[in-house]
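Sequence only, no structure available. Ideas?
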Amino acid sequence: MSYNRSMQASVAKTVQKPMQSLCKYGKCRRARTKNVACVKRALPIVPFILGAIVCALAIPIAVMLAVRTDPVIAERWTRTIQAGWERAIGTLTSWLPFSVMELFIVAGVIAGVFIIVRLFVDLSTARFGRVVTGALSVCVGAAYIFNIYVLSMGFGYYRGVMPIPQSGKKYDEQQAVAAIEYFLDDYTTLANGLERDADGYVVCPYTFAELAELMKAEYARLDDPYFAAYTPTAKPIANSWFLSDMLITGITFLPFGEACVNTVAPPTTVTVTMAHELAHAKGVQREGDANLLAWYLLVSSDNDYLRYCGYYGAFDNLLTAVLLFDDRDEYNRLAKLVSPRVFDERTSARKYWNAQPDVIGNIAEFFNNIYLKLNGALNGTGSYGDGNFSDVIIDTDPDTGDVVREVVYSKTQMMFFALYEQKTS
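Reply:
I predicted one. Tokens follow.
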């Protein structure tokens, strides 16, 4: 018995030594009390890999954001890399009858809900490792998408001046009124002649698919290399009601090569929006330029319906040219000549948009304002009207002391004047 006890003691001492050496990284109560070996766990490698990927993806983002403000680089990038990407991906997505962007957003919302639920579950069960891994995985996905976004449409905001017909003449009031009356006559004729529905909206004589093809044909008239050669086919948004809630009429998402339109907006707005979104797809990213290009193509079209939509969007700015001469009476005279049907249509459109939720619309505008400012538009959502600003510069002639008034027309007004010269020459 004494021999056996001494042997057991010897074995116990032998077993305890390696157990103590395994616990040298820290005290382990469980190991001390139950003689269980305490082994230091290796740090998980997945978070480090994900973190490295995020850092790697951040590098091209930083480089692109830094160089895109150079107009020369922005121009070359938009004409080559962006145009090539859009043609390649747009050709693929054009085979699908639905919007890939919309599908992506819906999938993103579902994934976001799943991630949030999973986050709360992991936090409640103290699975902090999974929380870190999940957060890093989301960062990897976001960095990848942001790379594709900047590559495909982040440079166009910093390009040079868009080539659009602009009159080189200095119009006096009489000449400006003559141009206004020319287009006013056509506008009124179209407004009174086109069919309208019960709400006063002009009825679009085409299906959405027909209108999309018609618009592509209009954009084919652009032959300046400033504009991308490829023109995608505009797509309808299935959940357009949600876009209306956000006061959004259309979205162009070049990572998928798509120009998408809210189809439940007032009919005339749908047409103008389609022209605007396709302008983005042609490499015109600045909102004011996209509006100007859309109005130019519509107003200069031979199609009566398209031309009416162009007037509906831009004629009011042309009419204000008279106010640059402080001639309120002449402005009122011309304004009264606009068809009452146009005012009825605008009233119905205003009622439609006023019926949308203010909260959702304000949130959407808030983020759109930030987005545009991050892309160089210091006035944010105000940049939609950049082509509409006119002014009068009042100065004193240093030689005679006379007051000199210099009228500065807006880009929209000079576009109309250029078209007037083409049509009347």
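Strands lie at 235-236, 250-253, 258-261, 391-396, 403-408.
Hope that gets you unstuck.
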